[in-house]
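Batch manifest, entry 17 of 40.
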Amino acid sequence: MTIRNRVLPVAAAIALAAAAAPAAAADYVQASGALTFASQYQGETFVGRFPGFQTRLSFDPAAPQDAKLDVTIPLASADTGNADRDGTLDTAAFFDVARFATARYTANGFKPLGDNRYLADGTLELRGVSRPVQLTITWTPGAQPMLAGRATVRRLDFGVGAGDWSDVSIIPNDVAVSTRVTFRPAP
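Output type: C-alpha cells
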C-alpha cells in the first residue's frame, strides 16, 4: 500500500469523525447591555435598571438544550431615577442589600420557539429564595450576537416588598423584567 493510499483513508476517517461530532457551544461574556424592571407605585408606572449586572452564556443554536445562562445582579445598583425609592429598595423590606448583595438568574437549556426565539426555564435566586422564572429570549446571531429577553417576576414570591408594602393595590405583585445583552467571545 502506498503512502497516498494510507493517508486518504485516515483523512476520510478524521473528516467523518469531525462531521459526526456534536457542535461545540460558543462561550460568551457580556460586552454591553441593559437589565430593566418596571412596576407601579399607587398607579404610577416607574422603570428601574441594574447597571452593574453581568452575563455569561454558553450557546449553540444547533443544540439549545445544552445552553447555559448565568446572570449576576448587584442589588445595590438598582436605579429608578428617584433617590427616595432607590433608598427604599435597599432596605430589609425590599432587596435587603445588607444581607443579600446580589441576585442570580441561571438557566440550563433553552427550548426552541422558532424564528431565533427560545424559552429558558431558569431559576432566580433573590433574597435567599430560589424560584423558577421563565425567560423568553430572542437571539440575534452575528459577530456581536445579542440576546433580548423578557420575564415576569412575582415579587412577593421572593419577599420583596414585605410588611405594609405587600399590599398589591399599592405595588402590583408582577414586575416586568427585560434585558438586552450584546456579547463577545469569552476569554
